[in-house]
Amino acid sequence: MYLIYILVFIIGLFCGSLVNYMGGGVTREPRSFIFSSCRECTAGWQWLYMVPILGFILTRGRCPQCGKSLGLHMILVEIGCGVLFTLLVWRFGLTWELSLAAIYCLVLLILLVTDLEKMLLPNVITYPGFIIVFVLSVAVMALNFEPRWAFHIPATGFFSILNNYLVSALLGALTGFILLLLVAVVSRGGMALGDVKLAGLIGLMTGFPNIFVALFVGIIGGGLIAGLLLLSRLRKRKDPMPFGPFLCLGGMVALLWGTEILKWYLSPLSTP
Ligand SMILES: [Zn+2]
Predict the structure, then answer these.
(1) Sequence ranges of the domains in the chain
(2) Helix or strand or coil: residue 62?
(3) Can you give the C-alpha Rg of the chain in angstroms?
(4) What DSSP element (H or E) covers 179?
(5) How many Å lie between the centroid of ligand 1 and the Cα of residue 39?
(6) 247, pLDDT greater than 90
(7) Which of 87, 106, 154, 163 sees the fewest Cβ atoms within 10 Å?
(8) Minimum mean pLDDT among 169-178, 231-240, 244-253: which range?
(9) Cβ of 269: how many Cβ atoms within 10 Å?
(10) Residues with CB under 5 A from ligand 1 (ion)
């Protein structure tokens, strides 16, 4: 079993490298997918430089073509993706849930990278993301599968329809979208429309009521980091900070442990 974890970690590293490459490609002006993780130039790289970790060491963290620094987050994304894939296998085993969760997490990771680097959540990722997740949700419902992040609401009669996977997914999307849209309207642009759409996408992935776990983790995490950066004076009050990466991490937590968190939170209700 350890061998599988090591193998999955390595696959995760390569997917992390792909995420870096995709993130650069969709935010580059004009958009181009040359084989390079450099954000500054459009010169292609040798294949060896695209190998995770090894590439970063060989290039010493600088683009071999133009010499610009690649940014430490490149290697962190690769290692993070390796750790994430290992966690997913540990949580779901080698099941169909694993492939579903891995696809969802990869979409979220690409958005995390683009928002972190350019404060952009490109529609070219979000919109196809909606279609992919919707098609997969229909397939999950049609095949009568039940992923572990689908939380069962103790409901009877008409409201038991909320436990239908597709209904739950659509309601999750609507909840995420409307809640953040309200925040965007009330804060007068403090929340970008990209974040609103992202919350909708995460809701479609996690379903209702698991979307609340994603939003809660995202908001608490974002608030904590923002506070720490202010206290350490790394960031001034007026400096903009992307919220998308925290939402994406919240979505991943909801996929991995959302059901457990909700059960724990709701347990005082069911045990009088
Ligand atoms: Zn370059």
Answers:
(1) 1-94, 122-272
(2) strand
(3) 20
(4) helix 165-186
(5) 7
(6) yes
(7) 154
(8) 231-240
(9) 8
(10) 38, 40-41, 63, 65-66
